[in-house]
Automatic annotation (TrEMBL):
SUPFAM superfamilies: HIT-like. The lineage of its organism: Eukaryota, Viridiplantae, Chlorophyta, core chlorophytes, Trebouxiophyceae. InterPro entries: HIT-like, HIT-like_sf. One of its GO terms (molecular function) is adenylylsulfatase activity. Residues 53-131 form the HIT domain. This is HIT domain-containing protein.
Length: 167
């Protein structure tokens, strides 16, 4: 199977947005699987923004915080960062930094929270949350601190559009 055949197959099956040849190479080297299943508890209240070579990037639908992303490595059975191979671990950290930079550029937060909790949902996922002094949980943790407040439709569309451009 040729390189472009693999690329077309991956793009069709997973819906990935490959913008550069490097992304194709990273995907082929990563352990991302076409049969990946996102747990329903991670789907709830989130909007899929993009698929990267390793992670599915989700936007949390919560107006309490300027921007809250969740990155989910697209491999079944992961619970801890240590479950990743060295290559996928390196790829994950690159994707985390990429998401952090996008959120910083978009929101200019006072603080950027990056966390892997997994106490409620065991599927490995990484929270990247823009925090400001005005958010209702400041300065405490935002995870479960307040009832989510859905973004209005126009703000949601704008945020997804801006994230799509930055990510």
């Amino acid at each position: 199977m040729g390189m472009w055949t693999v690329y077309l197959w991956a793009a069709a099956v997973i819906g990935m947005k490959f913008r550069k040849k490097r992304a194709i190479t990273e995907f082929l080297k990563s352990g991302a699987k076409a049969d990946f299943e996102l747990w329903s508890s991670l789907k709830e209240g989130k909007i899929e923004v993009v698929n990267w070579p390793l992670c599915k990037v989700l936007l949390v639908d919560d107006a309490n915080f300027p921007c809250w992303l969740v990155l989910v490595p697209q491999q079944n059975g992961l619970r801890e960062l240590t479950d990743l191979s060295k290559a996928d671990s390196d790829l994950l950290w690159g994707e985390i930094l990429r998401a952090c930079r996008a959120v910083q550029e978009l929101c200019h937060p006072k603080k950027l929270n990056v966390a892997t909790l997994g106490n409620v949902c065991k599927q490995l996922h990484i929270h990247i949350t823009a925090r400001n002094c005005e958010d209702p949980a400041w300065p405490g943790p935002c995870y479960g601190a307040v009832e989510p407040k859905p973004l209005d439709k126009e703000h949601l569309q704008l945020l997804v559009s801006q994230l799509d451009r930055l990510l």
